[in-house]
Amino acid sequence: MSSYDGGKVNRPHSRRRVLALIGSALLAAPALTACAPLYGTTRSGARLKDVMSGLKVTEIPGRVGQRVRNELIFSSTGGGGQAAALYRLDISVREGVSDTLVNRTGEIQSQLYNLDAQFKLIRLVDNQVVLKGRSVGRAAFDRFNPIFSNIRARIDAENRAARVVADGIRTRLAAFLSSTA
Question: Domain 48-180 belongs to what topology?
Answer without folding.
Answer: Double Stranded RNA Binding Domain (3.30.160)
